[in-house]
Amino acid sequence: MVLDSMKQIFECSEQEQIPFWEVVLRYDMDLRQVSRQASMAKMLSTWEAIQEAADSYTGTQRSVSGLVGGDGLKMRMYMRRGESICGDLIGEAIVQAISMAESNACMRRIVAAPTAGSCGVVPAVLLALRRQEDYTQHQLLEALYVASGIAAVIAYRASISGAAGGCQAEIGTASAMAAGALVALRGGTNGQIGHAVAIALKNLMGLVCDPVAGLVEVPCVKRNVIGAVNAISAADMALAGIESRIPVDEVIDAMGEVGRRMPVEFRETALGGLAATPTGEAVKARMPHGE
Amino acid sequence: MIDIFDMMGPVMVGPSSSHTAGAARIGAMGRTLLGEEVAEAKIGLHGSFAETGIGHGTDRALLAGLLGMKPDDLRIPNAYQEAKNAGMRYAFYTVDLRDAHPNTALLELTGKNGKKMSLQASSVGGGAIVVNKIDGISVSFTGEFNTLIVRNQDESGSVAAITSILSQLRINVANMSVSRHRRGGNALMVIETDQHIKPYQVEFLAQLPSILSLTYYDKEDDEDGSGFDEANL
Predict the structure, then answer these.
(1) I need a labelling partner for B100 at 20 to 30 A (CA). Which of A13, A97, A239, A281 fits?
(2) What are phi and psi of A143, to 5 degrees?
(3) Maximum C-alpha span of chain A
(4) Cβ contact (<8 Å) for B72 and A115?
(5) The CATH number of domain B4-135 is 3.10.129.10
(6) Rounded to whole angstroms, how far apart are CA atoms B26 and B35?
(7) Which pTM value belongs to this model?
(8) pLDDT tens digit sequence for B191-228
(9) CB of A145 within 8 Å of any CB in chain B?
(10) If you ran DSSP here, which 8-state letter would residue A266 be given?
(11) Contact status, residue B115 vs residue B35, Cβ threshold 8 Å
(12) Which of B8, B21, B51 sits opposite A148 (nearest CB)?
């Protein structure tokens, strides 16, 4: 079995009369030749690593360049003052997305999802929704399987790497994973998962990868926030019955095509976009070099 | 085939799966293949490893790997201090390797007992690595299998000797390659296997005539899930 399209997952789910997440679980059991317990135990330790990273964030660390650190704490204090325009759920998602992405930049332990640079998106939406609503650990693992399956399809059909497809392939994919996971948590249908993925990807299509000094810091940390917030809105739209007019597999293919045609300056080379601004160049000039 | 735990994972110390997690794996591969503790490491950084390596902790991750740490080891940020504590000497330099992947490191290692080895490896994305050269001889393997690296005399029968014993041990060869400097000189066999090879079996293979030396990389098994009960979630 290959996870080569969302359509294939939907068909398998229907034929076998099993939910989306279980199609992905069975794929993993088949690919790695492991038991159901072994697969789920690994997903559980993955989830525990995510929670540990979130719980141990203090906001006191700085990245090697000094550009990143402390903003998750700033957002947390702002939320505590009750002044947030976004409200509790989105506000919490912003806190978690920044905190996790900062943790990555500061060489703390994180879970790449699908990449290290986009590691804050999926955790942010799951941790924020769980704070507000009761979910069993089983349901959260199911959501992680859904997210992983979505990423596997995108990796197969398009790309999940900024060097190959720009930021749309990293934060875009993370956002699609998060949107699908949210719909699954809320008990949405397979069709709604597909629409949420399609909407999330479409709304970040074309996003370039332009890291200042080539580091996973600026603008990566804050782009985790747009990935999370975009996922929440896409999930809500899908759960409301709003449909993507372009089917999800075609959206994924379009994202892949945009990535392939994206100039190399916008694919992680730090030669364009924000990296090529006067300020971006100045940061690069004062970075320690491997000479 | 795409592993879903490469999509939701790896669990790693940031900031970059290619520049940090992959670098740690390259270091650890070097230490394993050397077969003893590293006393001295000369580390050449090529391409993007040289350009943005320091900002990504590539240097620290390589040292951490050479000290035997895994990509999720929280001591990676303190690898310079850890190296000092372990008495490992190191030097970094920038190198321009022809036709190499942008994220490539060249490690020249000397062990505590004087063993020497050089290894060139690339970090090819998501934390995955490919070893390109051992002691200047081209190879290609990833560490995703159990891997035997055999230095042997380039003469007929030496390949068959190893593979026939593996088959008697019921160890299936997944991939295999043979390369050499020149005809009749030293050759290098890389044999990737599905099953683990036990230490005494490795020792036995090393005793075969025509084999100069042999190192073995044992792939770590995934969690087997024992003690996990879905009903407790």
Answers:
(1) A281
(2) -60, -40
(3) 59
(4) no
(5) no
(6) 14
(7) 0.93
(8) 999 999 999 999 999 999 889 989 999 998 887 888 89
(9) yes
(10) G
(11) yes
(12) B8
